[in-house]
């Protein structure tokens, strides 16, 4: 049960992350959901490999690079949550 409460605990978002998904605080699960909404809305999945995300200018600030895997994304976003 402790794992679920940790995932649902509202976290403070960095200003860079808020620029992409909106104002926090919000739980990690919601952050990931909103990131995927943003990625799909702006068509940022690599057409050759859907598991990779091609960062636009806003996401480059969050990720620190132009292309990340889905797994990297989760790790890189953690740095923007408190």
Give a structural overview.
With 82 residues, the protein is an alpha+beta fold. The protein has a single domain, classed as Orthogonal Bundle (MDM2), CATH 1.10.245.10. Helices cover 54% and strands 13% of the residues. The chain contains 5 helices and 3 strands, in the order H-H-H-E-E-H-E-H. It has helices spanning 2-8, 15-21, 28-41, 57-63, 70-78; strands at 45-46, 49-54, 67-69. A 3-stranded antiparallel β-sheet has the order 1-2-3. A hairpin with a 2-residue loop joins strand 1 and strand 2. Helix 2 packs across helix 4 (57-63). The protein is globular, with a radius of gyration of 12 Å. The two termini are 21 Å apart. The model has no long low-confidence stretch (mean pLDDT 93).
Architecture blueprint of SSEs:
Elements: H1 2-8, H2 15-21, H3 28-41, E1 45-46, E2 49-54, H4 57-63, E3 67-69, H5 70-78
Antiparallel strand pairs: 1-2, 2-3
Helix pairs in contact: 2-4
Gist of the model:
Helices cover 54% and strands 13% of the residues. The protein has helices at 2-8, 15-21, 28-41, 57-63, 70-78; strands at 45-46, 49-54, 67-69.
| Structural domains: how many | 1
Strand order of the largest sheet: 1-2-3
Q: How would a textbook summarize the main sheet?
A: 3 strands, antiparallel
Radius of gyration: 12 Å
The mean pLDDT is 93
Helical content band: 40-55%
What are the low-pLDDT stretches, counting only 5+ consecutive residues below 50?
Answer: none
Number of discrete helical segments:
5
- Class based on secondary structure composition and strand pairing: alpha+beta
Please identify the top-level CATH class: Mainly Alpha
Percentage of β-strand residues: 5-15%
CATH architecture title: Orthogonal Bundle
Q: Give me the CATH superfamily.
A: SWIB/MDM2 domain
* Beginning-to-end CA distance, first to last residue: 21 Å
The CATH topology label is: MDM2
Order of helices and strands: HHHEEHEH
Please state the overall shape, judged from the principal axes of the Cα atoms.
globular
Number of strand elements: 3
């Amino acid at each position: 049960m402790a794992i679920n409460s940790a995932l649902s605990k509202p976290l403070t978002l960095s200003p860079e992350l808020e620029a992409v998904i909106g104002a926090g605080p919000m739980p990690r699960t919601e952050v990931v959901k909103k990131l995927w909404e943003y990625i799909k809305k702006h068509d940022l999945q690599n057409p050759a490999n859907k598991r990779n995300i091609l960062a636009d200018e806003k996401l480059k600030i969050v990720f620190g690079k132009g292309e990340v895997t889905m797994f990297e994304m989760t790790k890189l976003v953690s740095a923007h949550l408190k």
